[in-house]
């Protein structure tokens, strides 16, 4: 059975894993109520609507 001769360094381990951790900017969707950009599956910060209902009272 093959056994490594030396300990693998942190740099080698992290470099190997770095390819799987590419960060991608989250996509934005437009709010169906006020048409402002917002994060998907979240309450609209502008009008306070979520799924067609007013969840947060906007002033």
Automatic annotation (TrEMBL):
Keywords tagged on the record: Ribonucleoprotein, Ribosomal protein
Phylogenetic lineage: Bacteria, Bacillati, Bacillota, Clostridia, Peptostreptococcales
Family assignment from sequence similarity: Belongs to the bacterial ribosomal protein bL32 family.
PANTHER family: 50S RIBOSOMAL PROTEIN L32, LARGE RIBOSOMAL SUBUNIT PROTEIN BL32
Organism: Peptoclostridium litorale DSM 5388
Leader sequence residues: none
Molecular-function annotations in GO: structural constituent of ribosome
Name this polypeptide is given: Large ribosomal subunit protein bL32
Pfam families: Ribosomal_L32p
Keyword field contains Ribosomal protein: yes
One Gene Ontology cellular component annotation held by this UniProt entry: large ribosomal subunit
InterPro entries: Ribosomal_bL32, Ribosomal_bL32_bact, Ribosomal_zn-bd
Gene Ontology terms describing biological process: translation
HAMAP family: Ribosomal_bL32 (MF_00340)
Statement: the UniProt record of this protein carries the keyword Ribonucleoprotein: yes
